[in-house]
Amino acid sequence: MAAGTPVPLLDLHAQYAVIGDEIEAAVRDVLRSQRFILGPVVEAFEADVAGYSQCAYGIGMSSGTDALLAVLMAEGIGPGDEVITSAFSFFASAGAIARVGARPVFVDIEPATFNLDPTQVAAAFNERTRALIPVHLFGQMAELEPLLALARERKAVVIEDAAQAIGAELAGRRAGSLGDYGCLSFFPSKNLGGAGDAGMVVCNDPERAERVRTMRAHGGKRRYFHERIGGNFRLDALQAAVLQVKLKYLDGWTARRQANAARYRERFADSGRVVACGALSEPGQLVLPRELPDRRHIYNQFVIRVTRRDALREQLIARGIGCEVYYPRAFHQQECFAYLGLPAGSFPHSERACQQVLALPIYPELTPAQIDTVASAVLEHLAS
Length: 384
Known about the structure:
The protein is an alpha/beta fold. It folds into two domains: 13-247, 3-Layer(aba) Sandwich (Aspartate Aminotransferase, domain 2); 250-383, Aspartate Aminotransferase, domain 1, CATH 3.90.1150.10. 36% of the residues lie in helices and 13% in strands. It contains eleven helices and twelve strands. Strand 6 and strand 7 form a beta hairpin. The chain is globular.
């Protein structure tokens, strides 16, 4: 394949070209105020994100990872405890569990959605289980109702990892609003991305909100007085200012991502190569993201599955087309989790996903012509 017009995986320059003046003005206001840590800008953003997420409380955090960590700390989860989560996700979902000294317990995914398989969760529970972290991967919410019922029965905390899912919905309920906590990430590549690391915890329980708020400030409600040992997990006012500007554009950006996903589907539909996830067996076949009927999918990523994934990735890169593997290795196969003693084959759907997934460009500013370029390149490879 000859290299053509480049299509990046993400183009933040295109986004900034539209809203740059607003962002610079908001940042300038913070600089002039010289109030950089928490304060009214952060509080306003917290309230707006909480409302957007259908929650009563928002607690700004230094990152999505720290949001998970602070919640686990606020619940007193640590050595001797176990926390159940997906075997296939970004590392923070499992890393935060291990960082508080608890034992991560992995469950396999549903192959069509990449989200936690609720039918396998009950078997992972025992008397040491303190929490469950379902991940809303790639922008579509996991099936939560059976998980919430099981957690209530077993008296476990449900922490929604909604790092990739702000504004996603399940039967009209927003990500982060159904569990005991929701953890959001505002990493620059997210649908709502900051100018660096940032995150938030959302919830509906005032006592839990206050515990997390305390945890982000070294475990103290008053300066120099510490009831617990927390950390420095505060959201910077500069990040809040940037994100506050972007928040009002979020639904429009989501609509464009959804439209881009629809155009990909149209381009691939007539090829005769699209199959259901379980039918993927031959090199010329393609599996598209499955969008469930009772969901609002926000398409943080548009992830396809193919059998010769690495060869396709090389061909796309050679053409200047951005793509990425989310994720190349399941948690139980990571070196740092070798102590769990989980051999290859323990979570077959997660392992297979690691071999087949590839994310294509889906960002809001992507043009129809760019989508056509990407789709044509994928189909050309599948036909070879």
